[in-house]
Design goal:
single chain; Rossmann fold; Hypothetical protein af1432; 2 domains; elongated
Length: 352
């Protein structure tokens, strides 16, 4: 179907720009059209099809969310006014969800004003179109946003590769099986109790999982060495924080994750590495990971230590609070361990 000037939902007839461009042959992008007006939805579907994309219609907000959860589209054309949930609420909800936040959303509405446009931007929408829709503008916006979406999709495997590297590092040492998952769990518990939410909490979890990824660049004989490292070996081992920082640089959340990877061996008193940071100058995520990492290392069999009971490990953390570890992070974590029944410590208990 080719749009004509008589078709009311659109401001102008389709032009050759509305056809699938040469070079985009075989584009399988799927677009979800959300509009409570079936006439408008079908008209948009015809134009989207003419542009060379497949489409699906939802007439309510709840139906749209169900479709997105079952089969995420490549782009959403979203009416601002729906009978159950407003387009702004749907947009905001999808943008706050890690699984759907990269889906481009174009808000389509018959009532365009600056206030509405600003609200759409605030909700995270990538575009805003007024009815009657300009076909050329719609076509160009679709092409630009879908091109960006394809680029983002090609970047996703980079994250998978980096996480695979982290798992490979873990697999080098049979003693640390499951360490990353436990560490991420402990760190998330601490982060939640410190009030971290959303992206900050997600970055903490990712930083926990990736904290030792730089060990992929360290000689395996050093990593597996059963006894103490020599001075030269220890200096080489210290490089894993800097190597890890470079490895995670391509991640979208690198600005939040990299400080954790770089700083998880810093010490509260400034005696750590690689930068000798002191106290709260150490990134919070790195302080959290340092405590969680130490606890897991003390309570699981490693080539270089004897396993401590949870109570003994918790006491070691307390002993190191204010010198090695952030005292607040230690207090929060040990209190949680006590609540879980992992340790039963008297507050004035002496060193184990």
């Amino acid at each position: 179907m080719r749009c004509t000037s008589e078709q009311a939902p659109f401001a102008q007839p389709a032009t050759p720009a509305a056809k699938r461009n040469e070079g985009e042959q075989g584009d399988t992008s799927h677009i979800l059209i959300v509009d409570d007006s079936l006439a408008m939805a079908h008209a948009l579907t015809q134009i989207v099809d003419e542009c060379g994309y497949s489409s699906k219609i939802a007439t309510t907000g709840r139906e749209a969310l169900r479709i997105v959860s079952q089969q995420p589209p490549d782009l959403i054309l979203l009416d601002l006014h729906l009978p159950d949930i407003s387009g702004l609420e749907i947009c905001a909800q999808l943008k706050q969800d890690e699984a759907t936040r990269l889906i481009p959303i174009i808000i389509v509405t018959a009532h365009a004003d600056r206030k509405a446009q600003l609200k759409c931007i605030e909700a995270g929408a990538e575009g805003y179109l007024q009815k009657p829709v300009d076909v050329q503008e719609l076509d160009l916006r679709l092409k630009a946003l879908l091109r960006a979406k394809r680029l983002n999709d090609t970047l996703e495997p980079a994250e998978n590769v980096i996480f695979a590297l982290a798992r490979m590092v873990e697999s080098k040492d049979t003693y640390t099986e499951g360490h990353l998952q436990r560490l991420a769990y402990y760190a998330t518990v601490i982060g939640e109790r410190l009030g971290l939410t959303g992206t900050a909490l997600m970055a903490l979890r990712y930083g926990s999982l990736l904290h030792d990824v730089g060990k992929v660049g360290i000689d395996e004989t050093i990593i597996r060495k059963p006894g103490p490292l020599t001075t030269a070996e220890y200096k080489l081992m210290q490089q894993h924080t800097l190597i890890g920082e470079r490895i995670v640089a391509p991640l979208r959340m690198a600005a939040r994750i990299a400080p954790i990877v770089r700083g998880h061996h810093e010490r509260w008193d400034g005696s750590g590495y690689p930068d000798g940071l002191v106290g709260e100058n150490i990134p919070l995520g790195a302080r959290i990971v340092a405590v969680a990492d130490a606890y897991d290392a003390m309570t699981t069999q490693r080539s270089y230590n004897q396993v401590l009971t949870p109570a003994a490990a918790a006491q070691r953390l307390r002993d190191g609070a204010g010198s090695i570890f952030d005292p607040l992070v230690v207090d929060i974590f040990v209190a949680w361990l006590e609540e879980q029944g992992e340790v039963q410590l008297e507050r004035q208990m002496g060193a184990d």
